Amino acid sequence: MNKINLRIEGDYESGFFSMFLIEIERNNISIPIFLTSEQTNLGLEDPEEPFEPIMEMLNILLDSGFSIHQTIEIVNGDDSNEQVKFVENFNNRIDQGWVSEIQPINIKFSNPGDPENSNIDLESVGGHFYTIYTESNDLSPLEMVEKLKIILI
Q1: What is the DSSP letter of 11?
Q2: CA nearest 19: which of 9, 33, 29, 32?
Q3: Is the pLDDT reported for residue 44 higher than 90?
Q4: Confidence (pTM)
Q5: Which alpha helices (DSSP H) does 2-63 contain, by range?
C-alpha cells in the first residue's frame, strides 16, 4: 500500500499555523520528526503557505508515488473562526501520489563520516530535497534512518 499517514502538530494563533512536529506513518511503523525553529518560522512568514516548512518533504513523498493522508493536530489554539476553517480545509486531506509506483528515495547522512552527529538528507528521483535536522529528535540519526528506510521503501 502506497499510503503515508502524515500527522502535523502545531499551534494556531492570530491567523497563523506554526507546525513543530510531523509524524510519518506507514504500515503501523511511524517516526516523529521535530522541526527546527527556522523551519517553523517559514510557515509564519506567509500565512498563504502554512505548509512551507515541510513542502519539500510533501513533494518527495508525492514524487515517489506515495499518497498522503494528512491530519492536523492543534496543540494550542485560539479557537477562532480562522482556526476552524484551517482545520476544515487541511485536516483529513488526501493527496494522491504523482506516479503510480513507488520510486526510490535517496536517504543519506549529511556527514557520512560521523552519522551520529549528522542530519538526514532525503532526495526524490525528481530532485526534491529535504533535510531532517536530528538534534531535537528523541531517536539517534542511525535509528531515524533505519525507520525511514522501513517506512519509505
Answers
A1: E
A2: 9
A3: no
A4: 0.94
A5: 37-45, 55-63
Nearest Cα neighbor of 62 from 19, 22, 12, 3 is 3
pLDDT at 1: 67
15 shares its domain with 78: yes
3-class SS of residue 113: coil
How far is residue 63's CA from residue 81's CA, in Å, rounded to a whole number? 34
**Total number of domains constituting the chain:** 2
Residues 6+ apart with CB under 8 A from 145: 107, 109, 115, 120
Structural domain boundaries, residue 7: 3-95
Residue in 31, 17, 39 with CA at minimum distance from that of residue 144: 31
The amino acid present at 136, given as its one-letter code, is: S
* Within-domain flag for 49: yes
Cell, residue 103: 520510486
User: Measured on CA atoms in the order 33, 37, 39, 41, is the torsion positive or negative?
Assistant: positive
Comparing C-alpha atoms, which of 123, 137, 115 is closest to residue 31?
A: 137
- Residue 101 lies inside a defined structural domain of this protein: no
List all residues 6 or more positions away from 24 whose beta carbon is below 8 Å from its beta carbon. Answer: 4, 5, 6, 30, 31, 33, 148, 151
Task: Answer with the one of 76, 95, 114 that is the final residue of a domain.
Answer: 95
